[in-house]
């Protein structure tokens, strides 16, 4: 693996002004110099159906190729009904098919979940981790990142407003970078 890492960021919310998206943009600035975080959009992916895999939609092919080029994947997700949003699960399914050709296999992953409440998306975080185990994605175990109160996390300039939370998120990214480097 190179000394510079290409990290694909998958955001579970497709709303342009989502708190999750704002967080990922702030993480791009906080990342160690060796880590290039780039958002891979998932909102335009058609719902997965094996029937479409005979002649995959152009969006699926582009998505699979982009994930295939990544050194690692950062999943950032809000919590919907104690799970991940459907659009994120669909992206996981698109990337895992056709059977035996998963673009996820072996890629280091990290999960950060957010909510406006105090629990920080704990349910979504762990539900996503179940899928990542099956997909053979070694996933950062510590520190776990459950971010509550996300609506006040990023200030108007796009920075993490609170020093304690900024330091935690910086440590999270440093741990992820170390995990990628060790692979």
Looking at the structure, the CATH topology is Rossmann fold
Shape: globular
- Which CATH class? Alpha Beta
Q: Termini distance?
A: 8 Å
What's the CATH H-level superfamily name? Answer: Flavodoxin domain
Structural features:
single chain, 183 residues, alpha/beta, Rossmann fold, 5-stranded parallel sheet, 5 helices
Describe the protein's architecture and organization.
It contains five helices and five strands. The protein has 183 residues and is of the alpha/beta class. The protein has a single domain, classed as Flavodoxin domain (Rossmann fold). The longest helix is centred in the last third of the chain and has 20 residues.
What's the quick description here?
Helices cover 37% and strands 15% of the residues. It is of the alpha/beta class.
């Amino acid at each position: 693996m190179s000394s510079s890492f290409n990290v694909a960021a998958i955001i579970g919310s497709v709303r342009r002004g989502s708190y999750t998206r704002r967080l990922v943009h702030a993480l791009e600035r906080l990342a160690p110099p060796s880590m290039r975080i780039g958002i891979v959009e998932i909102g335009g992916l058609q719902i997965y159906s094996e029937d479409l895999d005979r002649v995959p939609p152009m969006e699926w092919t582009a998505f699979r190729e982009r994930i295939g080029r990544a050194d690692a994947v950062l999943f950032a997700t809000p919590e919907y009904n104690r799970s991940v949003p459907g659009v994120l699960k669909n992206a996981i399914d698109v990337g895992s098919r056709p059977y035996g050709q998963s673009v996820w296999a072996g890629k280091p992953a990290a999960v950060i979940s957010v909510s406006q409440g105090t629990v920080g998306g704990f349910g979504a975080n762990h539900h996503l981790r179940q899928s990542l185990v099956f997909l053979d994605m070694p996933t950062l175990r510590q520190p776990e990142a459950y971010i509550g109160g996300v609506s006040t996390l990023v200030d108007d300039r796009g920075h993490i407003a609170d020093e304690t939370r900024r330091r935690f998120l910086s440590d999270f990214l440093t741990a992820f970078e170390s995990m990628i480097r060790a692979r």
